[in-house]
Design a protein that fits this description.
This protein has about 210 residues and is an alpha+beta fold. The chain has helices spanning about 15-20, 25-30, 110-145, 160-180, 190-210, and strands at about 5-10, 45-50, 55-60, 65-70, 80-90, 95-105. The chain starts with a strand and ends with a helix.
Length: about 210
């Protein structure tokens, strides 16, 4: 008689990241380690773990819920498809994943007793942890580059203009020196005493000539 069971685990990723990876062929393959062929369309056929699992999308609610029919190669023709329902609920440290697996053949207990844990939950935790660490490492490597980037000065001075300023000041200095050299030299002032003695000498020489 078929039975059902429920398992839970916490995945270090957002509900949207898990939803997208589960329904993406490459993402599903990378997070489980087995080749998968997935789709995000209701009614599409899917497979996982190198063809060991096959099924179809029955219901999809983006970022919240995935319902698929599943059967493994261990199912015989008398067995109906089993159904998995994956519910995603974000919590503080990641996302709480609740898996309900129903209509499972009674004699196939390995899915509940370690199968889901070893083939899905543990690889998924490792995959998303490694991806998060890779993003953090990339951010750490890019941080020093941003800090060491040269700061732009508020006002830039053109090298040509800066070079011209000293030349102008030097030219002004040359003009000032040239103007000083062209000015007439000041006449020497004659002392009053010397001018009187000169006039007296001139008067004496004039009187002597008259005699």
């Amino acid at each position: 008689m078929p039975y059902r069971f429920t398992l839970t685990t916490t995945i270090p990723a957002s509900a949207e990241e898990i939803y997208e990876a589960w329904l993406d062929s490459l993402g599903h393959s990378e997070m489980t380690g087995g080749e998968a062929n997935m789709s995000d369309q209701v009614g599409a056929e899917v497979s996982a773990w190198d063809g060991y699992i096959s099924g179809r999308n029955l219901e999809l609610v983006p970022g919240e819920r995935i319902v698929q029919s599943w059967r493994t190669i261990e199912f015989d023709d008398a067995h109906e498809d089993s159904v998995i329902t994956v519910v995603l609920q974000e919590i503080g440290e990641g996302t709480l994943l609740t898996l309900e697996h129903s209509n499972v053949p009674d004699e196939q207990r390995s899915y509940e007793e370690g199968g889901w844990q070893s083939k899905y939950f543990e690889p998924m935790v490792a995959y998303f942890t490694e991806r998060k660490e890779g993003v953090a490492e990339t951010a750490r490597q890019e941080a020093p580059k941003k800090k060491n980037a040269p700061k732009r000065s508020a006002a830039k001075t053109s090298p040509k203009k800066a070079a011209k300023r000293p030349a102008k000041s030097a030219h002004k200095a040359e003009r000032a020196a040239s103007a000083k050299s062209k000015r007439p030299a000041p006449r020497a002032k004659i002392s009053p005493k010397k001018s009187k003695s000169r006039s007296k000498g001139k008067a004496r020489s004039a009187t002597a000539r008259k005699r």
